[in-house]
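Same chain as my last thread, 274 residues:
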Amino acid sequence: MNKKKVLYARPELGQEEFTRHLFSIYANDLGFEIINIQKKFPDCTAVDLRDGKNRIVNIELEYHAGNFISHGHLNQLEEGETCIVICWSGKGIQFIPSHIEVIFLSDKKYGFEIRDPYLDLKIEESGVTQEPLYRVISYVSQEAGGRSFEEFERVSMFRTNVKFSNNELPKGSVIVLREHNRLVGEFTVISYHWFERPPKTDYEKRLYELTTFPVTINDTYQDVHFENWTKGHIMYTDFKLYDPSVNFSILDRSKYERNFYIKFEELQKIRGLV
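reply #2:
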């Protein structure tokens, strides 16, 4: 395979769709000709052209190799049927039977160079160059009415009283959420707003209620307690739930650290790219 570079790849890293995206571009270079890609198992039917085989094969696309087992695909195979697993990471490969071929694209021999789209992002505001920040902050489901972080996938704002340098959080910054001893997901900052005072007028209160779902409103409606005012408001995109969640121990940090900045290399380690 000729060496290639993939810069600023989408969908976001860490999801099965990323592998699907990458394979759809480079299937021919890897020795496959795609016949069909679908949502149900198996993800893909292709012609395997490697070593002159010229045979039709089933392919399952995963982010981590072990997801093939955790998603129950081994039990979906009929007797005598096989499947090629193509994934980004070889994590969990030891749980896959030896008769099933596994190809993980992060292997250096394939020459993929994946870069975060915001790594080199610089925004000029008021003559000051701002670079993205990477921050781990705590998520407490009890403070969100018992709701899991997963529910924020359908929201576009996250409220927090965590302080950022000079009350600024540049566009393109990445926030990683930690719940107990697990890193559960991330999102990318569009804008950040810090408000010193809570809403006072009826209009401001109603607007606040509408824009803070699911934290302040349940399915039947509940009153917002404005004495528990949260000053920081993060508008975000590229929400990503880590599946599976990542053990906090992957970072060389004290377990007592709750909110702290990390380097981009540490973010990539969390994502499974280092």
